[in-house]
Each structure stands twice: as C-alpha cells, then as structure tokens.
Amino acid sequence: MADTIIDLIQGLREQNPKAQRQTLERYGNDVFAQVARMLPAAEDAEEVYQDVFVKVFKNIRTYDEQKSSLKTWISRIAYNEAVTWLRHKHPAMIYFEDRDGSAEKLSDADVEETLGHANSETVQLIRAALKHLPPDERAVITMFYYEEMSLKEIAFVTESIPTTVASKLSRTRKKICKIIKMLQS
C-alpha cells in the first residue's frame, strides 16, 4: 500500500477534514457512478452517495487493509447502501426474467457475437438492456466491466465468493444478450 493511502486512512481515522475532502475527491465520482447505475433516479443516487460517505467517515476504524483495498471497502458500503435504499424506499419493479430458460441455453459464442463488438449501437443496446435487470445483476455487470473489478473484489463487495460471482456474471451476460435480441426485434 502506498504511503499516500496509509496517510489518507490515518487522516480519516483522526477525522481530519482534509483527509475526508481528499477521499471525496479520490473516490466520489466512482461511488456516484456505482450507485447511479443501481438506482432509478439521479436524486436517489445523490442521497445514497451522501449516506455512503457518512458511513465511510463514521466506520473507518472498522476498515481492515488486510481484507481489501480502501476503494473496494468503500464500494462495498456503496453497494449495501444502494441495495438497502432499493429495499426500503423503492416500489417493486418488474425486471426481465428468463422463465423459459432460453437465455441460459445461449452459448458463450452467441453472447460474444452479440456483446463483443463494441460499437456505439452495441453500447446503447447494452445500456438499454441493463435497465431491465435487477439491481444486483446490474451491479455485478457494472463492477466487472465499468469499474474493472476482479471477481475477488466483486465477491468482497457483494459478500459472496468468486465462483458465485463468475456464475452470476455468465448468467447475466446471457440475459443481456437475450434482452438485446428482444429489443432488436
């Protein structure tokens, strides 16, 4: 761990306003993006964003650098706050369900053919498809692709294990592929 991170953590533990400001500058955009991808509206993301950093500053003493990086620990708090918000303050939403199992039957080659060509149309279709996924699946996809987190980091954030994350990632990619095919027809 770099000295600057160690100094930052120490400053946070001392409730130093400069360290808190640096933490917001360093991780704020990533946290906002993470919660905004999970929540229905920007105002909701702003509310959760504030709650995340209140918790970070309040609970910094519980952070263990042996278990995760500071960024991953903050991501875990953001994920949990967004899920809590969705459970308590958001009306139930209907998301795409693969009731007939047709998405599961898609091969990895089918998925790669649909998702593998990163042009502007594909990116727009993927963004549209993400809106049809439940927040937990959307979160796993965005952590892996947008935030480039490892399976181990995602497992820490979601309080899971890497093999479970890999399975969920595979199933969710297939669901996205199925949704894109439905949107195109």
In a few lines, what is going on in this structure?
With 185 residues, this protein is an all-alpha fold. Helix content is 72%, strand content 0%.
Descriptive overview:
- The protein has helices at residues 3-13, 17-38, 42-59, 70-89, 108-115, 120-130, 135-146, 151-158, 162-184.
- The chain contains nine helices and no strands.
- It is elongated and about 55 Å long.
- The protein has 185 residues and is an all-alpha fold.
- The mean pLDDT is 85.
Number of strands: 0
Distance between the termini: 50 Å
- Quick one: biggest sheet? none
- Stretches where pLDDT is under 50 for at least 5 consecutive residues are none
> In what range is the share of β-strand residues?
under 5%
Mean pLDDT value: 85
Describe the structure using short key phrases.
single chain; 185 residues; mainly alpha; 9 helices; 72% helix
SSE topology:
Blueprint: H1 3-13, H2 17-38, H3 42-59, H4 70-89, H5 108-115, H6 120-130, H7 135-146, H8 151-158, H9 162-184
Helix pairs in contact: 1-2, 2-3, 2-4, 3-4, 4-8, 5-9, 6-9, 7-9, 8-9
